[in-house]
Design goal:
The chain has 292 residues and is an alpha+beta fold. It has 6 helices and 20 strands. A hairpin with a 6-residue loop joins strand 1 and strand 2. Bound molecules: N-oxalylglycine and manganese (II) ion.
Length: 292
């Protein structure tokens, strides 16, 4: 066997919490198909995986992510967001850094509330992978929560009600009621009227067959068929089962870490780290399938 065909010595170590695992060892720039399969299995079993001790530049990182599926991006990029990394046009840059008056990325340093990526599109992403290029001395952790568990702990009566219900994930507005690029013609502030795809509240993971609660974002969510007050009350009730500390885990970043998460069965959030320093993450996503 030649060196390039030999599987790396990847070590997968659960991180001691309810979920999440760390992978270390070997060289992912020389990853074999077996290595990719090992990582894919770790994501399936642990939902969030941290790769630590590796170093990938943007081109290597892009090649790595593309081995997990077709690259996918936010509709903002397709509409009018600029390309941040010319070598990898679909790469997002999540950063608070402003250079010569120009932001090097998006999302700033404010709080990002619980969400799952691209649920406001017809075909949301499967994996998101985020690579730490610059990190503040403290703050800027990313927190993850297990949405299989959020479903499992629902009372049976609630589970059976959900089987018939769906959520509209509005696509046009940010939580401050500003419109996203391409949506400035939408004037309504009524969540019943905001445009966006309708997905089942409970989705079944295509690989594990497990059910998870699929909430997307709290802001702008609406359960079609219910009067607004009933929709709000049911959403609040469902959210009370999601993001519980015992079903969540925080990634404290080290430089070059890559975090990979499965958007089909997790949510994530980030606290504000205003005033704590420069942070820059390079991110890529893979294409998923329509939630069902
Ligand atoms: C994202 C995201 C959180 C963070 O890139 O989708 O939510 O911690 N990032 O930067
Ligand atoms: Mn996100």
């Amino acid at each position: 066997m030649t060196a390039t065909l030999r599987a790396n010595d990847l070590r997968v170590r659960p991180l001691g919490g309810p979920f999440a695992a760390e992978i270390t060892g070997g060289d992912l720039n020389e990853a074999t198909d077996d290595d990719i399969e090992t990582i894919r299995r770790a994501i399936r079993d642990h939902l969030v995986v941290r790769l630590r001790g590796y170093r990938m530049d943007d081109v290597q990182f892009t090649r790595f992510v593309a081995r997990f599926g077709d690259l996918h991006t936010s509709p903002d990029y397709v509409k009018d967001r600029k390309v941040y990394v010319p070598e990898s046009p679909l790469m997002s840059v999540v950063s608070n850094i402003v250079e010569n008056g120009v932001a090097v990325g998006h999302h700033g340093d404010g709080e990002l509330d619980w969400h799952t990526d691209l649920s406001f599109t017809d075909i949301p992403s499967c994996y998101t992978m985020l690579c730490a290029r610059e990190i503040p001395p403290t703050g800027g952790d990313t927190r993850f929560t297990d949405m299989y568990r959020a479903y499992d702990i629902l009372p049976d009566e609630l589970k059976s009600r959900l089987a018939r219900l769906a959520i509209k994930h509005q696509a046009s507005h940010n939580p401050q009621y500003g419109t996203w690029p391409g949506w400035d013609h939408i004037e309504t502030r009524d969540v019943r009227e905001m445009p966006g795809p309708i997905h089942p509240i409970v989705r079944t993971h295509p690989e594990t067959g497990r059910k998870s609660l699929y909430l997307g974002r709290r802001f702008g969510a609406y359960i079609p068929g219910l009067v607004l007050a009933k929709s709000e009350a049911l959403l609040d009730e469902l959210w009370s089962y999601a993001g519980r500390p015992e079903n969540s885990w925080s990634q404290t970043w080290q430089l070059h870490d890559v975090a990979i998460w499965d958007n089909r069965c997790t949510m994530h959030r980030r606290d504000s780290f205003a005033g704590l320093g420069r942070r820059r993450m390079h991110g890529l996503m893979t294409k998923g399938t329509r939630p069902e």
